Amino acid sequence: MTTRTPQAIEKVKPCTTMQDVRREVNTLDDVLVPLLVERVGYMTQAAGIKQGAEQVRDEARIEAIVARVRERATAEGGDADVIEAIYRSLMEACIAYEHREFARLREPALAGSAA
Fold it and tell me: What is the CA angle 46-47-53, rounded to 5?
């Protein structure tokens, strides 16, 4: 069995210590976290646009995103299975958040109609 080096390893800076690895991962996290915050912000907008809570989870959209990110991962030389797992987890967290936002955005309307 031949092990091949993932193409993605060619994109990373050489590290000789765990301190080097952790520094580079932290640098990437500093880029990723603001992007993820922005992505989640769109879930608040989606929660305001959707008419019913049953629209929050869209299986067809989930599978379309998975197919898209798997393709991107492969094109970038990464492991599509790892990227799919990350995105499925991300989407579940975003769906839970969107459900909370959907309810929160409608709370004043519900409270006002009870009076």
Answer: 125
Kindly write down the DSSP assignment for every residue of 16-49, as one continuous string.
SSHHHHHHHHHHHHHHHHHHHHHHHHHHHHHHHH
Is residue 66 a contact partner of residue 58, using CB atoms and an 8 Å limit?
Answer: no
N residues, the chain: 115
Over the stretch 14-62, which tens digit does the pLDDT of each residue have? 999 999 999 999 999 999 999 999 999 999 999 999 999 999 999 999 9
CA 34 from centre of chain: 12
Write the DSSP string, the chain: ------GGGGGSPP-SSHHHHHHHHHHHHHHHHHHHHHHHHHHHHHHHH-SSGGGS--HHHHHHHHHHHHHHHHHTT--HHHHHHHHHHHHHHHHHHHHHHHHHHHHHHHHHHH-
pTM recorded for the entire structure: 0.83
